Amino acid sequence: MKAFTTGPFTGRHITAIMVAFFGVVIAVNLVMARYATSTFGGVVVENSYVASQHYNKWLKEAAKEKALGWSAKAARLADGRISVTLSGAPQGASLTGDAWHPLGRMPDQPLNFTAQADGSYVSSKPVPAGRWRLRLEARAEGKKWRTEEDLL
Predict the structure, then answer these.
(1) Which homologous superfamily is 69-151 in?
(2) How would you class 122 by CB atoms within 10 Å of its CB: exposed for 0-12, middle for 13-18, buried for 19 or more?
């Protein structure tokens, strides 16, 4: 059987193959590293050790909040403000929160909500267009409840 080449396979051939192979691998790694660092900063908590010390406390708080049975549904209004409907919460509950960009490209937007006649809450200022994550905190009768909602 005859090989694909007409001449002998030399050291120059293997060198060219190795350089091409590792060149492709390095190029792909550089492209992927660039995409990874430009889309997500990687900071979830400032200090993971300190966060780990509070983990069990956070789990207990979350169990208490879940036992309250409250829920929230958020929607963007035409003017960019946020409307939140609380279910299960007592009348007169206060609602605060903030909107944060999931990729960290825009600064957090603190939100204050005003109760409406229909029982819903509307933010006092609009949130810029795009994908946001809402951290909501409701307080009523000495109880605190927190949740996170996606806002598309």
Answers:
(1) Macroglobulin (MG2) domain (2.60.40.1930)
(2) middle
pLDDT in tens, 1-12: 555 667 888 999
N-terminal to C-terminal alpha carbon distance within the chain? 63
Q: Three-state DSSP class for 117?
A: coil
Place of tokens 């927190």: 146
Both tokens of 26, joined, read 């390095």
Q: What is the pLDDT of residues 96-126, one digit of tens each?
A: 999 988 776 788 889 999 999 888 999 999 9
Please report, for the chain, the start and end positions of each structural domain, with discontinuous segments joined by +.
69-151
Q: In this structure, what is the dihedral angle of CA atoms 55, 56, 61, 67, given to the nearest 10 degrees? A: 120
CA distance 147 to 152: 16
Spatial strand order of the sheet with 143-151 comes to: 71-76, 82-87, 121-123, 109-115, 94-100, 132-140, 143-151
Q: Against a cut of 0.70, is the pTM above it?
A: no
CB count in 10 Å sphere of residue 84: 22
